[in-house]
Write a structure and sequence with these properties.
alpha/beta; Quinone Oxidoreductase, Chain A, domain 1; Rossmann fold; 6-stranded parallel beta sheet; 9 helices; 15 strands; 24% helix; binds NADPH dihydro-nicotinamide-adenine-dinucleotide phosphate
Length: 330
C-alpha cells in the first residue's frame, strides 16, 4: 500500500524530491468505517499553495504527512450502513492506494453514468468553478466579449464554452499553437492567442476583441492579465479565479498600476473560491450534465497512468503538459 507524503516545502518550482514515497500496511476498517481503493486522483494547481506554510483559505499540508486531493475510490469493504462493497465514491482523500474513511465527507458516484474520471473535472470541482465563476461572480450576459486565460485547461475550457452557450464573443489564451487550435475546433472559441509566441499581449487582445472586453475570467495572472486589463470596457468585470503564473514566484513581479483605470472605467475585480458556494454545487452539476447530454459541452482530460506518477503529473501542470483536466489513473 503506497502513500505519498510532503517531504519539503518547495521553494519556487516544486520538484519530485519534494515528495516522499512510502510503503505502509493496508488498513482494516473499524465499526462505521469503509476501506477504499483509489481509482482516479485529481492533481490541481491550488495544491501548490497548500505546500507552503503561508496562511490561506485552506490549511497547509503538514510535512511528512500524506498529501490529499479529490479522489474517486472504490469501496472494497464496508462497516458503514450507508455504503456497500463495490460502490464508488468521491471526496478529498489522501494520496494512498488504500485507506479507511468514516464516509462523512464522501459522495456516492454513479459508475453507470458519466465516466468515473468526469467526477473530478467537468462534473467535479473544475467544471463547477467555471460555472459558478462565470454566472454568479462574473454575471456574464448574452452578447458580451469574454476573455479567458488558461483557456485550454480544466476550468478555462469550460468557461469559454459556457460563454459560447451564452452567445458571447469568446477569446482564449493558452500556451501552444496546438492548444489554440483545439480552442477553436473542439471548444468553439472565436479567437485564440498563444501567449508564448506573443510579445505584446495588449495588442493581441485588442485585435481578437474588436468590441473591447466585458468579462475577463483569469486563471493565470501576471503579464497575460496586464495585457487584458488594457482592453477592458466600461463596467467590465474581472473574475480572479487563479494565478498559476505566480504560484511558484519567490518574489512577486511588479506590473502596471491599474487603479486609475479601475476608477475611470468603473471596473470590478473579484476573487472567489468555489468552496464558498457549496449551496450552488447541485445546480451547477445539473446544468453541466444537462449541457453535456445535449452535446453543447465538450471536455478533455489528460490521463496519466500509475499511482507513482502523481507528483510528476502535478509538476506537469506548471509546464502546461495537460489539455483539459489532469488526472492520474491509479
Ligand atoms: P489547468 O487545467 O488550467 O492546468 C494548469 C494550466 O495552467 C496549464 O495547463 C498551463 O497551460 C497553464 N500555466 C501553467 N503555468 C503557467 C504560466 N506561468 N503562465 C500561464 N499559464 C500557465 O488547471 P485548473 O483548470 O485546475 O486551474 C486553473 C486555474 O484555476 C488555476 O490557477 C487554479 O488555481 C484555479 N482554480 C481556482 C479555483 C477557485 O475556487 N478559485 C478552483 C479551481 C481552480 P498553458 O499550456 O496554456 O500554459
Amino acid at each position: 500500500n503506497k502513500v505519498i507524503k510532503l517531504a519539503n516545502r518547495p521553494v519556487g518550482k516544486p520538484e519530485v524530491s519534494d515528495f516522499d514515497f512510502e510503503e505502509i500496511d493496508k488498513p482494516t476498517p473499524s465499526e462505521g468505517e469503509l476501506l477504499l481503493e483509489a481509482k482516479y486522483v485529481s492533481v490541481d494547481p491550488y495544491l501548490r499553495g497548500r505546500m507552503s506554510e503561508a496562511e490561506s483559505y485552506v490549511e497547509p499540508f503538514e510535512l511528512d504527512k500524506p498529501i490529499s486531493s479529490a479522489i474517486v475510490a472504490k469501496v472494497i469493504s464496508s462497516n458503514n450502513g450507508e455504503f456497500n462493497e463495490g460502490d464508488y465514491v468521491s471526496g478529498e482523500l489522501d494520496w494512498k492506494e488504500y485507506q479507511v474513511s468514516d464516509g462523512k465527507e464522501l459522495r456516492k458516484v454513479d459508475p453507470d453514468g458519466a465516466p468515473l474520471s468526469a467526477n473530478l473535472g467537468i462534473l467535479g470541482m473544475t467544471g463547477i468553478t467555471a460555472y459558478i465563476g462565470l454566472t454568479e461572480i462574473g454575471e456574464l450576459k448574452e452578447g458580451e466579449t469574454l476573455v479567458v486565460s488558461g483557456a485550454a485547461g480544466a476550468v478555462g475550457s469550460v468557461v469559454g464554452q459556457i460563454g459560447k452557450i451564452k452567445n458571447c464573443h469568446v477569446v482564449g489564451i493558452a500556451g501552444s499553437d496546438e492548444k489554440v487550435e483545439l480552442l477553436k475546433t473542439k471548444f468553439g472559441f472565436d479567437e485564440g492567442i498563444n501567449y508564448k509566441k506573443t510579445e505584446n499581449m495588449g495588442q493581441a487582445i485588442a485585435k481578437a476583441s474588436p468590441d473591447g472586453v466585458d468579462v475577463y475570467f483569469d486563471n493565470v495572472g501576471g503579464r497575460i492579465s496586464d495585457g487584458v486589463y488594457q482592453n477592458m470596457n466600461d463596467f467590465g468585470r474581472v473574475i480572479n479565479c487563479g494565478a498559476i503564473a505566480l504560484y511558484n514566484a519567490t518574489e512577486m513581479p511588479t506590473g502596471p498600476r491599474v487603479e486609475p483605470m479601475l476608477v475611470q472605467k468603473r471596473l470590478s475585480m473579484q476573487g472567489f473560491i468555489v468552496g464558498d458556494h457549496q449551496d450552488k454545487f447541485g445546480e451547477a452539476v445539473k446544468q453541466l450534465a444537462g449541457w453535456l447530454a445535449e452535446g453543447k459541452l465538450e471536455y478533455s482530460e489528460t490521463i496519466v497512468e500509475g499511482f507513482e506518477n502523481i507528483p510528476q503529473a502535478f509538476l506537469d501542470l506548471f509546464e502546461g503538459k495537460n489539455q483539459g483536466k489532469m488526472i492520474v489513473k491509479v
